[in-house]
Amino acid sequence: MSRDTQLKERWEKLVDILSNQFSQGEDLDLDAIIFLIGVQELGKFHREYKKDEKLNLMHIAICRLLEPYGFYEFEYYDEEGWPHYKVKEELPPLKAGEQTVLMKEAIVSYFIEKELID
């Protein structure tokens, strides 16, 4: 099975699992999944988030997702429990499609690590 086919199958399985759990079956998009990962990483599940907090949650998720690729490194948790990362290496310029593939690969790897999918 090609790497692209495997990624596509794992992505579809992941979207199905998360959509059934968090949106009554309506497919979650990439941004929604990144947001969920941010909430997971923060560990504060049952509360409302303001717009700027939602953006910060997505930033946390992106840092966490790209940490294994060497782009970010975890630094510390602040007094409110929010994780902070530092940039280790700038992301190379990527086309929109390449960004999407990178994020899907990173998300699939994250959920394999969390043992939600295999």
What does this structure look like?
Helix 1 (3-22) packs across helix 4 (96-113) and helix 2 (30-42) packs across helix 3 (51-66). The protein contains four helices and two strands; from the N terminus they run H-H-H-E-E-H. The protein has a two-stranded antiparallel sheet. It is globular and about 45 Å long. A hairpin with a 5-residue loop joins strand 1 (72-77) and strand 2. With 118 residues, it is mostly helical. It has one domain (3-113).
List strands and helices in order, with pairings.
Elements: H1 3-22, H2 30-42, H3 51-66, E1 72-77, E2 83-87, H4 96-113
Antiparallel strand pairs: 1-2
Helix pairs in contact: 1-4, 2-3
Summed up:
The protein is mainly alpha-helical.
Notable traits:
118 residues; mainly alpha; 57% helix
Distance between the termini: 15 Å
Q: Helicity range of the residues? A: 55-70%
What is the arithmetic mean of pLDDT?
Answer: 94
Give me the number of helical elements.
4
The percent range for strand residues is 5-15%
How many beta-strand runs? 2
Rg over CA atoms: 15 Å
* Biggest sheet descriptor: 2 strands, antiparallel
The tally of structural domains comes to: 1
What are the segments in which pLDDT stays under 50 over at least 5 consecutive residues? none
SSE pattern, N- to C-terminal: HHHEEH
Lateral strand order in the biggest sheet: 1-2
Structural class call reads mainly alpha
Which term fits the overall shape? globular
